[in-house]
Amino acid sequence: MPDGAAPVLDVRGLKTVFRTRGGEIHAVNSVSFHLRPGELLGVVGESGSGKSVTMMSLIGLLPSPPAEVRAGEVLLGGRDLLKLQPRELQEVRGAKVGFVFQDPMTSLNPVFTVGNQIMEPLMKHMGMSKAQAETRAAELLALVGIPDAKKRLKSYPHQFSGGMRQRVMIAIALACDPDVLIADEPTTALDVTIQAQIIELVKELRQKLGMAIVWITHDLGVIAGIADRVMVMYGGQVVEQAPVRELFSNPQHPYTRALLKTVPSLTGERAARLEVIQGQPPILAGEPVACPFRARCAHAFDRCHAENPLRRAIDGRPVGQGHDVACHWSAGGAHG
């Protein structure tokens, strides 16, 4: 993937709130990132950091109300998805952006065969006849490693194992050759052996098809093995992003450093006791006016409590092009 390739997806200043009886929850706060053709972007952070809500906001998957995308641009193929009508957005979902959810059992419809569920987007978005869609559906099941693909088209979701159901979900997401595949913790509900198989499958599909992928996870070990670039989220914000090797070797944000210390060493040496990030994630009521990590950060000083830091470049390249971080302390603010 050429480093200077134009982004296939360009997200700018995305803000999403949830209106509740107790007030507004600011779940996504000025998130910006881009994705180039063929690139795999890992999105990491604790539960509640805004990873899934950010990605669901892009393609209108959040219920409204209570959710409201309040600001930003989501540019895909030169169109701002946030300005599309619901019917136009339906055409984008599946055709241009594929989505794989955490739990395939709740994502697949139990009363329809997997064949019908793969064929539906092919007929709707690609204009295929039933016979053409059936042939393509069998090809897709074979592509994701399901044996006896043509025969298994007539099976129902409950007749597949968890790993096989996730493969079916990937086949559905790939059906219309999307430009972008968003995988939302697709291996969380699976055992370790099946997780490894799904990760290898995604690697193979990426090489074969050349699509851009967003992989959402809380597992930094997975990200180390598959991502080109990593975006770290906390409190509904991007606190750091960098090429994967750079992030692991030179983390700048205290939250990123803390996350990395929670990952067991795989060097074979006797592991030290894993560290725990003390405290709780922030309650996202009201627009952020200070660093969201300040209450859990050993390096916090006065400015952290008074001003929400903007992302700044670490390597001299523009923000979003290399390594950047949103942190007063790493910027030397405590010392100068």
TrEMBL record:
<keyword id="KW-0547">Nucleotide-binding</keyword>
<keyword id="KW-1003">Cell membrane</keyword>
<dbReference type="InterPro" id="IPR003439">
    <property type="entry name" value="ABC_transporter-like_ATP-bd"/>
</dbReference>
<dbReference type="InterPro" id="IPR050388">
    <property type="entry name" value="ABC_Ni/Peptide_Import"/>
</dbReference>
<dbReference type="GO" id="GO:0005524">
    <property type="term" value="F:ATP binding"/>
</dbReference>
<keyword id="KW-0067">ATP-binding</keyword>
<protein>
    <submittedName>
        <fullName>ABC transporter ATP-binding protein</fullName>
    </submittedName>
</protein>
<comment type="similarity">
    <text>Belongs to the ABC transporter superfamily.</text>
</comment>
<feature type="domain" description="ABC transporter">
    <location>
        <begin position="12"/>
        <end position="260"/>
    </location>
</feature>
<dbReference type="InterPro" id="IPR027417">
    <property type="entry name" value="P-loop_NTPase"/>
</dbReference>
<dbReference type="InterPro" id="IPR013563">
    <property type="entry name" value="Oligopep_ABC_C"/>
</dbReference>
<dbReference type="Pfam" id="PF00005">
    <property type="entry name" value="ABC_tran"/>
</dbReference>
<dbReference type="InterPro" id="IPR003593">
    <property type="entry name" value="AAA+_ATPase"/>
</dbReference>
<dbReference type="InterPro" id="IPR017871">
    <property type="entry name" value="ABC_transporter-like_CS"/>
</dbReference>
<dbReference type="Pfam" id="PF08352">
    <property type="entry name" value="oligo_HPY"/>
</dbReference>
<keyword id="KW-0813">Transport</keyword>
<keyword id="KW-0472">Membrane</keyword>
